[in-house]
């Protein structure tokens, strides 16, 4: 028992009460203020994380910053490492055991479902910017496999199991390759997911641009019956496909920043009934039964003496974006950027879907800690008290997540004339304040260009809660 206590003291020495955001505060400040060179340099100062429990996040942050710096090949090298990490992830059972003595931060962060999808989005966009359509299509095939895995994992009707935005991206990529049939299928899938899932779960509706994309690819695929059917169902009876005389720009706007994980503590009261121990919090209406059948007499005795204790769980904190809408103006016409993906709401949904598992693991962790504590108190009250303090100090939620992602993603298709085109990108706040950026593009006939713009400003007033 004393040996176990010495191990816990050693683990406590490397444990921190800071959240993941707070422990990377310098990097986050530099990134959020747009100082990408400084943020990248700070990342390299922590290159040891490439082989540690945060390697997935290290790869993701490097990949995203390098993409924003237009270093697309280098960016994709890191995103590929992140992808392979997800493919090859294996549970380290020694670290899992350590996590039950301390907290889940002693395990490798394996990533949220949407994070594994979005890293492939960035890879595909990088390739499209480099005019490497075949490589972008490889990422689309990978995305399709990931989406199938996601669908197989969850069976409930109210689960995040399909992603509309990713299907739009696949449609765009297939269309660049002039594979109009597969583009139509991807757009059709996206439309269905917006209607069946996104409207009710996230309040996100199918963009009007997607409806036009669907009709255009139906026409170009020779699907005249589907073309007429969707004209009726989408209430677009006057739509007529008109070939673009020049080229086209697909503009993605990454607005704001995704939520950060923090933690919240819940006090539970224990009530024992036979082999069952019930953990309950009346205020939150939570009750979790824990079956002690098969556990040792020591564990039973320890849990029988528990009264009230605190358990730490992860939670998200939203960072509302500073800008609320944007337009692109060309030759006097202002085209709105339309919402494709609310990354913020999807992150909350992913965490909500596994909160049952989070609760059960956290309660088991605290139960085992308390059982050890009461057993030690019988042998030595002083050491038992010390262990109790260590248990309280090491009780911590896993607050790691990909925090450089955008809050939400918008897009717009802009028809361009052959040759030089100058357009104005205008960002607008809720209060009506505007910021303008001007871009000039040279396009060849039939060419599709890609551009991403990231506005990193957030409205959240304080970092201390993170």
Task: Write a short abstract of this structure.
The chain is α+β, with helices and mostly antiparallel strands.
Tell me the layout of helices and strands.
Layout lengths: L1 H12 L6 H4 L1 H8 L3 H9 L10 H14 L3 H17 L4 H9 L11 H17 L3 H21 L10 H13 L3 H23 L5 H13 L3 H10 L13 E9 L4 E14 L2 E6 L4 E6 L5 H8 L3 E10 L5 E8 L2 E4 L1 E4 L1 H11 L1 H25 L1 H14 L13 E9 L2 E11 L4 E10 L4 E8 L11
Parallel strand pairs: 1-12
Antiparallel strand pairs: 1-9, 2-3, 2-5, 3-4, 6-7, 6-10, 8-9, 10-11
Helix pairs in contact: 1-17, 3-4, 4-5, 5-6, 6-8, 8-9, 9-10, 10-11, 11-12, 12-13, 14-16, 16-17
Protein traits:
17 helices, 466 residues, four-stranded mixed sheet, alpha+beta
Describe the structure.
This protein is α+β, with helices and mostly antiparallel strands. Among the domains are: 247-259 and 319-342 and 407-466, Immunoglobulins (Immunoglobulin-like), CATH 2.60.40; 262-315 and 363-394, no CATH class. It is 49% helix and 21% strand. The protein is built from 17 helices and twelve strands. The strands form three sheets. The protein has a four-stranded mixed β-sheet. A four-stranded antiparallel β-sheet has the order 4-3-2-5, with helices on one face. A hairpin with a 4-residue loop joins strand 3 and strand 4. The two termini are 36 Å apart. Residues 7-15 have low confidence and may be disordered.
- Quickly name the level 1 CATH class of the domain at 247-259 and 319-342 and 407-466: Mainly Beta
The biggest beta sheet is recorded as: 4 strands, mixed
**Strand percent estimate:** 15-25%
| Helicity range | 40-55%
Terminal CA distance reads 36 Å
**CATH fold type of the domain at 247-259 and 319-342 and 407-466:** Immunoglobulin-like
Question: Which geometry do the CA atoms define?
Answer: elongated
- CATH homologous superfamily caption of the domain at 247-259 and 319-342 and 407-466: Immunoglobulins
Query: In order across it, which strands form the biggest sheet?
Result: 8-9-1-12
Supply the CATH architecture of the domain at 247-259 and 319-342 and 407-466: Sandwich
